[in-house]
Amino acid sequence: MGGGTHQTSVEGRGASGVYTWEEVQKHSQRGDQWVVIERKVYNVSNWVKRHPGGHRVITHYAGEDASDAFMAFHPDQTFVRKFLKPLLVGELAPSEPSQDHKKNAALVNDFRALRDQFKAEGLFRTSPLFFCLHLGHILLLEALPLALLWYWGNGWINTILCIFILATAQSQAGWLQHDFGHLSVFKRSRWDHLLHKFVIGHLKYGIKKLKHLPYNHQHQYFFLIGPPLLIPVYFNIHIFQTMIQQRDWVDFAWYLSYYIRYLSCFVPFYGVFGSFALLMCVRFIESHWFVWVTQMNHLSMDVDYEKHDDWLSMQLKATCNIEQSFFNDWFSGHLNFQIEHHLFPMMPRHNYIHAAPRVKELCKKYGIHYEVKGLWEAWCDIIR
């Protein structure tokens, strides 16, 4: 049957339907959502709530081509396709282009070819040495305050020094957890549960699709809510709720073990109340660190309105890079390469530096602006 010559309901159709983009785009409402992946049409209406990566990713692509997002977030596509097979309702008509909304097919194909080259070159493989060294320096940072307290006591100067060292350790541990959230297959990142409060994700956030604290009004609440409260309040509440709701008792045990270890180390120096006060000071600084690092790539970018861009163009409009240096790499957990982080969320961060020059070349070929800022300039842009 030809596209556009039949009804678009799926009852009784099985996987034999042939659809036009116009028909697919009609299925973009809550409770009726179709997506296209490599020209195959899938009815994901009942799968959205069960999607291990959350419902937002699928909802953003309802009625559209989701091929690049699918490939970006699913490293083992053979395994994932087992879940897709029962959802198949048909395919695009032969006369239909592979991309919706008149996207540049040459650009899309060149980007996919580049991603395939990166995979062939091993840029999606992690380096155990890198992460072992990273974990090692976190442990050293956590041990240093105890050594200072044991040797010099808990005076004000020493306490302030310990707070900043512990905040540094926690921030670096946060980047490690961030890595875990992206590199774990079918493991929902805990940061994902904060996205309805702060737009720091990897997909498009059109105004119509954002219901809580909309991005275009973020300037009215950012400095009062974001830096001081994100980790001390929102993060702890959401992570606790998530573990209880999902009955993730292993994670819950690790969660409790942190506080047991922390209290056993610092109660002898500060008592119970003083130890919790110390922890809140650490969290307060850590929260500022996290928010300013994540928002320096996003807040001043054009992410207000959804324009149905291809994957590459969309990410380049929504984010920018910060200049590469040893300090910037360490300070930001390599999120100064935010463009590559958005384009290839499953790529280990130590490989961004190898991918960035070739992404920049591809952008230059198609006249796409690849923005790189200085660290101070990016922070000034947040204030502006």
Overall description:
54% of the residues lie in helices and 6% in strands. By secondary structure, it is an alpha/beta fold. It folds into two domains: 17-102, Flavocytochrome B2, Chain A, domain 1; 128-383, no CATH class. The strands form two sheets. Strands 1-5-4-3-2 form a five-stranded mixed beta sheet. Strand 2 and strand 3 form a beta hairpin. Helix 5 packs antiparallel against helix 13, helix 7 crosses helix 9 and helix 8 runs antiparallel to helix 9 (249-295). Mean pLDDT is 82; it is low at 1-14 and 183-211.
Secondary structure blueprint with pairings:
Blueprint: E1 17-19, H1 21-25, E2 28-29, E3 32-37, E4 40-43, H2 55-60, H3 67-73, H4 77-84, E5 88-92, H5 105-120, H6 128-152, H7 156-183, H8 222-245, H9 249-295, H10 311-318, E6 321-322, H11 326-331, H12 338-343, H13 352-365, E7 372-373, H14 375-383
Parallel strand pairs: 1-5, 6-7
Antiparallel strand pairs: 2-3, 3-4, 4-5
Task: Describe the structure in brief.
54% of the residues lie in helices and 6% in strands. With 384 residues, it is α/β, with parallel strands linked by helices. α6 packs antiparallel against α7 (156-183).
Total helices: the number is 14
Strand fraction band?
Answer: 5-15%
The number of domains is 2
Main β-sheet, in a few words?
Answer: 5 strands, mixed
Structural class: alpha/beta
Computed Rg? 23 Å
Quaternary organisation: single chain
Give the uncertain stretches in residue-range form: 1-14, 183-211
Helix amount, in percent? 40-55%
Distance between the termini: 56 Å
Strand order of the largest sheet: 1-5-4-3-2
Please state the average pLDDT score. Answer: 82
What is the 3D form? Answer: globular
